[in-house]
Design brief:
alpha/beta, seven-stranded mixed sheet, 9 helices, 9 strands
């Protein structure tokens, strides 16, 4: 089924697709060289704040970073946990190549794998991910995480959210409208800026992952940031 227009703001279309994973593959095809800068400036500097919160929730000596991309979060984890064993995985080898190039930590390694097909020979104390939930099937991803999680381990998931406040929604739409204009000058990001808002607005990833995690026996803590534009779910196995 082809993409459809969800709504239109300031004469700029917000598009939604029925295939989030296909969108992800297109989003990250030619964007690796500018990803770190876009993650910083497109979130108005909030990306680092959200990742810092994730790090505060990490526990243990072995940490898995799902969909690590260029390794922004992975490097932050390595700085905070220099004695822990850290593995970053990503489906894109191009992104992993940048992550490897930018990492000089002896306790960090990287591997090319699809998070929904995760198959490793070890388990971890903490499994974290920033921006993956909206692209994956909640049931599949949580099952893979549980298989690779140590006893008393925790899963920490972060992604964008569509704000509930009408006032914040206006700002949210205005920001993406400006990003779509920016896309005219950064062609490699034009598709992502056009399609990402529709994906975020149509996603119910928070409810889906909460349901799957609760059914798997986790206690949950849900924290919203940026007036509801971002969310982190911390899941801790019940004692």
């Amino acid at each position: 089924m082809p993409p459809k227009v969800l709504c239109q703001v300031w004469n700029i279309k917000i598009i939604v697709s029925n295939s989030p994973k296909e969108l992800a593959q297109k989003f990250f095809t030619d964007t690796v060289s500018t990803y770190d800068s876009v993650a910083k400036y497109a979130t108005l500097g909030q990306d680092k704040k959200w990742k810092s919160y994730i790090i505060k929730k990490i526990r243990g000596d072995s940490i898995l970073d799902l969909a690590c991309g260029t390794g922004i979060l992975t490097r932050m984890i390595a700085q905070k946990f220099p004695k822990s064993e850290i593995l970053g995985i990503d489906i894109s080898q191009n992104y992993l190549d940048v992550a490897i190039k930018n990492s000089n930590f002896s306790n960090v390694s990287f591997l090319n794998q699809d998070a929904e097909k995760l198959s490793l020979e070890k388990k971890f104390d903490s499994i974290v991910s920033s921006y993956i939930p909206k692209y994956c099937d909640a049931k599949t991803l949580i099952q893979k995480c549980v298989i690779h999680l140590n006893k008393d381990g925790r899963i920490i998931l972060h992604d964008f959210a569509y704000p509930k406040s009408k006032l914040v929604q206006k700002f949210w739409h205005a920001l993406f409208a400006m990003l779509q204009i920016c896309g005219k000058f950064i062609p490699s990001w034009s598709f992502a800026f056009a399609n990402l808002p529709g994906l975020v607005k149509s996603s119910d990833w928070i409810e889906q992952y909460r349901a799957e995690l609760e059914s798997a026996g986790f206690e949950l803590e849900t924290k919203y940031f940026a007036f509801g534009c971002s969310c982190v779910i911390t899941a801790i196995l019940k004692q």
